[in-house]
Amino acid sequence: MKIVFSQRKLLDSINIVQRAISPRTTLPILEGILIATEKDVVKIVATDLQLGIETFIDAKIIEQGSVVVPSRIFSDIIRRLPEGDIEFTVDSGYKIEMKTFNSVINLQGLDAREYPELERIEEINPIEIEERILKDMINRTIFSVSVDETRPVYTGALFEQEEDNITIACLDGYRLAVRKDKTDMSAQRTEVVIPGKSLDEVSKIIGNTDKKLSIIIGEKHVLFDLGYTRIISRLLEGDFLSYRQIIPQDYSIRVKVDTHLLQSSIERACLIAREGENNLIKFSIKEDKMVITSNSEIGNIFEEVPILLEGNELDIAFNGRYFLDILKAIEDDEICLDFTTNINPCVVRPLDGREDYTYLLLPVRVFI
Amino acid sequence: MKIVFSQRKLLDSINIVQRAISPRTTLPILEGILIATEKDVVKIVATDLQLGIETFIDAKIIEQGSVVVPSRIFSDIIRRLPEGDIEFTVDSGYKIEMKTFNSVINLQGLDAREYPELERIEEINPIEIEERILKDMINRTIFSVSVDETRPVYTGALFEQEEDNITIACLDGYRLAVRKDKTDMSAQRTEVVIPGKSLDEVSKIIGNTDKKLSIIIGEKHVLFDLGYTRIISRLLEGDFLSYRQIIPQDYSIRVKVDTHLLQSSIERACLIAREGENNLIKFSIKEDKMVITSNSEIGNIFEEVPILLEGNELDIAFNGRYFLDILKAIEDDEICLDFTTNINPCVVRPLDGREDYTYLLLPVRVFI
């Protein structure tokens, strides 16, 4: 096997596929990256068996072949080589030689036949979406994914498509994050659960551009096809809560508030609250202001945020960190907080009746 | 006690003095920052008893007084308050109240009389030096300070002044870094050892400007007077090696080399070497090139760097990390490496005979 790579292109490809390598794998071959020629292009692949990434690069192929390279040292070396050509040769014993104008590096590779095949998914009924829209939807919901491995389905995000709506919903025991957007019309309804970690890596690989990518849902896998790069993830099995049923449709109290003022007041309150238990902060919603307080052994804080109130006054308590996560995920300058009682969830929605986001947070019950 | 601070000025001052606070102190009062009015300015102080920093800020003093504030939470809160005025009040029980237009924060402070006094040093015979020159001298030597606490004097840097020369020298068991520069003429000779940690903090506080600061050497302390801020450090006791005696004056082999080419070749060699022992890299100095090699269980590397050689060919081995530290501290594009034999140190010097830096590194003895 013999290939002449451009250092820049090879490094870009390795940076992409490396996201699929798990830092703690028990299968040594999975610490490697597969490099294989496919006719006139080179395929670079990595996987942790849950998530697989393959990307294709142009290179000058002198002799066809394939090898698995040790990923960490290989990427460290490629990163440190000067821009320009790298002559990459592999002998029959999988010994790798990399040559530039003043360096020769030898590493031991592994037999590519030992490397697991990525799942093939038939590319039918692709869902097409702009990269920046998908990136945004992921980044604004993924923080609500559960970290509790005992109920694995909730470590994933519910991904739905129906007609021309696309939705991502994430929930753990305390909060729900839902983002909606538009795609092309689709005849069939899709509803799958994608691991949070896979979506997180997808959002890091895709750009902030209006270039479209295709999402193809298979039996047990999902494929994100970016053209030059394909990301294949297993789906999670199990029943996901019908999240629509837990979003209250009515409210008796609506607070309109400036997102940034609310966020900075809660941030300060959290500094005091983090020294106590549960990051507990209290809201006291009054006629024209919301008073936010917290206290712990180190002291106490009292914040006032101007609001517009519809409905009655209310005292309610939350985990301040969770509330901050929601506020940080919102792009609007002003939002609605909808309440019913101090034991019902708070629903955070856009001011103007748009339905592109809904966040829900359970209050903490306290003897106020 | 009542003061109106500007949030911005207070935050800047806290960021400076906080560098003296040790993350693991056994004296609770040293986790605090002293805030005390002194006539019409406010003094902000922190110390770990080794290093003390005090800075002065303008503020509207309504009632004189002093208090020790808990540093971590205090700085976190000040950082998160909006720009503008902070009304800072302390009652007789050291209860602190901070008020802005929409926040009220209460913290418990401590009695300022419990706070240790910083050492007073009589400001005689100041050594005047531009901030950027001192910053540079520190940053380009401090990496050679020893981390071995069993010989404390070498955890410090030797600071010398004689006539119009100023020198900083740091050494551990394997290497020596010396930087020289010019100051005003001085009648007396100064030679003290300043803790590496103190110099490191000094270099972070001073700017990259040509503003001058004064260094005043006391009996057991040194004072860096920046005008608005004063940094006081203990000196280290003990005999520091006469480092001039260990720098070979002669050489039999001189290599002239491009600093950046050498650095990037050694960086790559270190990637392979780090998997083995001692970060061992080997130089084979030949007529017109230096061959740098290293090998470990993961593979091997062979690098060629063009050189100009005076003298005989030589094979010699080094700890590659130590060699890199030296190269990173050098601003010249080309340097001299001077050798005698493969068991004598390598001396790194400027090409043009300048004496502003000298680095020395002991080779590693191997059966080449």
What key phrases describe this protein's structure?
3 domains, DNA Polymerase III, Chain A, domain 2, elongated, 6 helices, alpha+beta, 45% strand, 368 residues, homodimer
Give a nutshell description of this structure.
With 368 residues, chain A is of the alpha+beta class. Chain A has 3 domains: 113 residues, Roll (DNA Polymerase III, Chain A, domain 2); 120 residues, Roll (DNA Polymerase III, Chain A, domain 2), CATH 3.10.150.10; 109 residues, DNA Polymerase III, subunit A, domain 2 (DNA Polymerase III, Chain A, domain 2, Roll), CATH 3.10.150. Helices cover 17% and strands 45% of the residues of chain A.
Descriptive report:
The structure is a homodimer of 368-residue chains. By secondary structure, chain A is an alpha+beta fold. The first copy, chain A, folds into 3 domains: 2-114, DNA Polymerase III, Chain A, domain 2 (Roll), CATH 3.10.150; 127-246, Roll (DNA Polymerase III, Chain A, domain 2), CATH 3.10.150; 253-361, DNA Polymerase III, Chain A, domain 2 (Roll), CATH 3.10.150. Chain A has 6 helices and 23 strands. Chain A has helices spanning 7-17, 71-80, 131-139, 196-205, 259-273, 320-328, and strands spanning 2-6, 32-38, 41-47, 51-58, 60-63, 66-70, 85-90, 95-99, 103-108, 127-130, 156-171, 175-195, 212-217, 221-225, 229-234, 253-258, 280-285, 289-296, 299-310, 314-319, 334-339, 346-350, 357-361. A 10-stranded antiparallel sheet of chain A has the order 11-12-23-22-21-16-19-18-17-20. The interface between A and B is medium-sized, with 31 and 31 residues.
